[in-house]
What does this fold into?
Amino acid sequence: MNDPPRIVLASASPRRSALLAQLRLAHRVWPAQLVEARLAGEPVEQCVQRLARHKAQLVWGVLNAGAGDAALAGLPVLGADTVVLAGGELLGKPRDRDDALRMLALLSGREHEVLSAVALHAAAGSQVRLSRSRVRFRPLERAECEAYWDSGEPSDKAGAYAVQGLGAIFIESLQGSYSGVMGLPLYETAALLAAAGLPTLPVQHRQLPRDAEGE
It folds into this structure.
């Protein structure tokens, strides 16, 4: 985008940036540097919301402490976090090939849940929204899981698959937010932006002609 940025995206994910671009809101990418880990005993819903908020707050702090681009200081910062929950296990990005194949075997022929949180942090504070989606995989053969890993697609994806890519051939059904499964739920994101005075579809109310008033 060539327009001056109106928000900052605290994520290195090209998928999140592309989704945000769909809302036609000029933004700059400034990835948050933190270890994404679940706290002991922490519910999954709280974990993803805490991480999304923490990412946004962290980048806000950097940009407003004079350690970043001065042109971005004061802009709202958007953070997001996505996890896959299957069989009671929280699936993040695979560590390696074996871990990815294990995840795909766990997802094979069953339904899993995708939780995606988005947070917007500005001078007034933070607001967070949570998206829940359910995805069912068809039964997978190990050979195709190995071929999928060799494609390079699953290496940096939560749950070791990409709904918007080749991984779509595994998905039998999806209930919920497609963009949320990708990593940035646009319904929730748009609601946060609108509440912060950054509507994605600004409406201009037409002024009635003076002689039409009171009819």
Notes: The longest strand covers residues 125-137. The mean pLDDT is 91. The first helix runs from residue 14 to 22. The chain has one domain: 7-198.
